[in-house]
Amino acid sequence: MTERFxxxxxxxxxxxxTGTAAVAASAGGGWLMSSGDASAAEPCVRPxxxxxxxxxxxxxxxxxxxxxxxxxxxxxxxTEDAGKDLSMQPGRGQRGTPVIFPRRQACMLCNxxxxxxxxxxxxxxxGALQRVQKTSDDIRAKVHMGTAEVDRNLCYSYNGASCGACxxxxxxxGEALSAGLWEKPLIDEDVCIGCxxxxxxxxxxxxxxxxxxxxxxxxxx
Amino acid sequence: MNVRKLQITRRLVQIGVLLLILLVPVAARYANYLSxxxxxxxxxxxxxxxxxxxxxxxxxxxxxxxxxxxxRVGRMDRDRKQILSYTQLLHGSxxxxxxxxxxxxxxxxxxxSISASKRIKKVLLIGLIIPVLAAVLLGRVFCSWICPMHLLxxxxxxxxxxLRFLEIKPxxxxxxxxxxxxxxxxxxxxTAFLARPVLGYIYPPAIIGREAHDFVFALFDRAxxxxxxxWWGGLTWMSLIILGIVLFELTVSRRWWCRxxxxxxxxxxxxxxxxxxxxxxxxxxxxxxxDCVTVCPIGLNPMNDEMGKECDNCxxxxxxxxxxxxxxxxxxxxxxxxxxxxARATLLPLVIVxxxxxxxxxxxxxxxxxxxSYDEDYPQxxxxxxxxxxxxxxxxxxxxxxxPAPGDRCSIYIYVNHRDxxxxxxxxxxxxxxxxxxxxxxxxxxxxxxxxxxQAVFKFYPQFDAESEYMLRVEFEAEGEPWIIELPMVxxxxxxxxxxxxxxxxxxxLFLVIIRAIRIKRQRSVKRAAQAKPxxx
Lengths: 221, 537
Hints:
Chain A has about 220 residues and is an alpha+beta fold. In chain A, about 30% of the residues lie in helices and about 10% in strands.
């Protein structure tokens, strides 16, 4: 059973071949695993407290703990199936990372849930989501999921009717999203954190107000 | 401690971990329903179904936990609030798990995160403390006590025993142990280079955790739609990696994954290389029966006291030793021997791993890629959209409804335009709908139907009666070249777990029969050769 160290050239060559093959094979495999078409047809946003997209994708270990912790069920792990009905394709190394489809379920910033911190950020073991206290200041400072944008051609309030559904839904009502004349939504991009509650509340189809993920603004694929 | 008791405890812990992996997503869904005030309604609606019963027992479990007296907070009655805070104590999978208020993260996950992001986070280190300490003190105990794959492979080992009993001897090819260290090193270098984790995608405990989540969530999603019973829907092709490992283990190489390939096992081995708690041999008591050598799952040699760094301290050798020659000992860190070299067919395990990751080959026919989207005007029903390219033409097909139920008439519109000029393709086009058959020829259910242009669109209205997978075939001739574009379409939810399981099982049986037949044939030819030409002495 025992095999002693064999210093022969044949053994050396064998080991060299093994090493080279292993390196080549695992490099190829890794490339295959992480490559993919990053075509996100519909916007999806990262959970609150996420680092900037590139750092986030590097730090996140794809454990799914934030999705388990989310009391509102808005965080899902990204698979081919998860985004299929919203035309999503996982891009480079995105499989298993957490995403929020605001149109399906938006982040309610753990309103009414137990705990002093946003639950996904408290659950994150890798630090890809920074811990965020459930206070106005901390949320403003650390949560940048995206920014809401209004399509004035679609919005009822800009077209002679008065709606205001999005303004009521905004957690920073009057600051991030305030009502103008005839309840026209006015967005303050500096305050808006991109929770997507306005998009979820919008009664117009297709939604007149939508969240553009912050990573799309950064220009990261 | 009694050795036998140790083995029973180990098996119980393994089964417990497996149940926990399935319980965590159920508890997550339970918390969602409780948060959304949907729990009571769902419990009532789903009574008697699998999902309903599971949810009910989770509910009973959480309600049995002790509750502190608290003030009523708004409409959150205190029970609800208390239970919701209990559900926060259980998240994740063995890859990274919240257990009570303990955070436990696999060292491989930590290594990958650090190497990809090139920074060290405090939260990450906190989660690594217990697993790393356990590995440093006890070696690869994660493998033998926690890893769900290890349990699966131990069961496969028992199947191998059954095969031997049936005189179908499964092969046991040995590879080079250093493959896993190479894989670990290359993986970590690649992670750093790509700035994305890589190894977590092929590491079985991580895959099993993710798949269990997807599986359970899909079951509850179906229940919300009023569909009950078991369904594979949530599982992705990642499960095939697990299946492949098991099948290879069953037929070709015993414990190949744990011994030669697993990058996590490699990391645990490195961490535990100087573990103080190890198995020691009493050379006087040993009768050199080699029982321990046969039983060792990692393929080590306790008989020669060569436990090296890879021993997972599972204690199987202890329980199989008839001479009481082996025992756990707490010793000062021992000087390591050089690992045994066995460079035999070293390429194979890696080739197999990589082949799971490979992409599918391109065929002569063009296969459209499905793409569901909500129609701008009517968002409730998804529309199926396909895009394909045929020579100079772009072919687009829309199907409405995109996910038809059996019996639905489906409107299929086909747009063929020249890519550069945008000109509409004006010649005739043939459309056929085929029902895919597992065996034999596909059955034509509609067409072949030729069609002329109708306001720049080719329109067809096939009806799909059976719940099955269909293939929509578009044939036309452009610039003297014939084009066939095939587009898959799914009606209803074909494919049941029983069917898939049956397919896999019959495949395995067929495989075994073939092996047996080849073996019998080979034995006969050897016998015949021996009779024909006696070997000279």
